[in-house]
Amino acid sequence: MSAKPDLTPAPEAPQRHEIYVPRYARAKTLYLVFGLVLFALSFEKLGPAIKLGFAGGRARGEAVRVVRTQSGGGPVVYTSDAEVLAAVKAGEEARDRDSVFWVEYAFATEEGRRVEARSPLGQHVKPLQPIRDRDGLPSTIRLWYDARNPERILLPLQFGTWFLPGMLALFGVLAVTMGGLLRFHANRPIEMPDLSRSHAETNGDPPA
After folding, report:
1. pTM exceeds 0.85, yes or no
2. Which residue segment(s) compose the domain that 182 sits in?
């Protein structure tokens, strides 16, 4: 009578590991510093805007005129939408990309002082908004102003107010986070499985 074959699985060989050190600590430190620089640059505009949001005044500004500035010439003032439309059309026909349209607003401070200030956002193609709305009344916009210097205003509901500093802050935070993690692990040994040897031994090939 023949003996039964032994069906007990053979014990697995212990998996071999190798030590990996990422290195490049200096380059990762520079990446971290780059993120800090981006974050600091964002606060050149984001910081004053946040300060106005907390400590500044709030008002509703009425558009009173549009000023067009151009290189090599003085500013041109428009007091009606018809004049603005004619200027925009003339600029399109002349393919003028140097002129910038700025809207100037009038508003009353909390102390009752009437102030006129120019929008910090200018546009090349056409003004940010018309002087008159559909009802023929002055078009309005929500604004923040500096209580000490009311001529310094900010338009909190405009996309352009937050886009550039917001993107700089976002990329700065991401770069600082990633750079910090990479720098922290730059000189720390990491134990990794030697998958190439494990694959060779599974196929019956002798280890290298």
Report:
1. no
2. 16-56+158-203
